[in-house]
Amino acid sequence: MTLPERRIVAAMLQRKISVAQIAVQLGRHRSTIHREIRRNFWHDDEVPMATGYWHMNAQHLAASRRRRQAKLLQDNDLRDGVIAGLKAGWSPQQIAGRLRLEGGRPRVCHETIYRYVYSPEGQAQELGRHLPERRRKRKARYARKPRSLVFPERCMIRNRPQAVKDRQVFGHWEADLMIFRKEHGPANVATVVERMSRYTVIFRNNDRRSRPLMNRLIDLLSPLPRDARQSLTFDRGLEFVSWRELEKGLGAQAWFCDPQAPWQKPTVENTNRRVRRWLPRDTILLTIDPKEFGGLAQRMNATPRKCLGYRTPAEVFREELARASGLQ
């Protein structure tokens, strides 16, 4: 909020005007006004008459919170200690708590660390890769907006044809990454599932960079006929931001789930739950021979499925693949 807006809030509160009416006057949501008052309300135990919401105090309090991030830019030792903690697998909350426990040195709260991680300086160092949960950009939940530049409207899952949604057409895939314990390294497992046949491919990635993953998908699907690789559906994870490479190299359409809606790709989510029987989260992936992932996929593809009339995914995939090959 701006200083003029805070001046209006203070004046209307003194006149006992409700928060709802203040929100209408400013063209803001009432929750915004509630948060503003709660965060910047001045408490003075020594002079009770001074307690209240005052626009200048509110402006100073808000500016003070914004300046806290500068502490990590100005204090090299503190910044190096925070970065070392992140690379060791500590969460920002653990780092901030440890600084408070040790005492005797400058400290920051975990929100300040998060803001630094998502600042231009933190993004240049790729610090977000060390967080327990990563996002491309951190915003309050009420302020989150679609990543229109990264995942444009034309690729939204709501635009996917109904025939694809109903599994009436062969050659449409879903892909996802299975994540494991952070202390075992950045390795992960990619699962790729054809929606109609439930045919599954599983392979290991040694990191979560997007471009190498897309190259693997291109190498995996490019030998198939064009009708057998028409589209792939992803969630909005950072590992899929290079999807344009996939469209360019494979000629397949990329579709993306809505924010925080991975359930919109149910085929691969269900597959991941099945795979967890053999690859729980504490699995050390680098100790597993890559051939074993192929063997696990073969095992799943050879299992009869009720949704396929108790045929196996491999059988249905071969039938549909032969049909797609005959169309070319």
Automatic annotation (TrEMBL):
Family matches, as InterPro entries: Integrase_cat-core, IS30-like_HTH, RNaseH-like_sf, RNaseH_sf, Transposase-Integrase, Transposase_IS30-like
The record's listing under Pfam families reads: HTH_38, rve
Entry annotated with the keyword Lipoprotein: no
Q: What are the Integrase catalytic domain coordinates in residue numbering?
A: 157-321
The portions of this protein that span the membrane are none
Keywords assigned by UniProt, alphabetized: DNA recombination
Q: Which biological processes are named by the entry's GO terms?
A: DNA integration; DNA recombination; transposition
Q: Which GO terms describe its cellular component?
A: cytosol
Name of this protein: IS30 family transposase
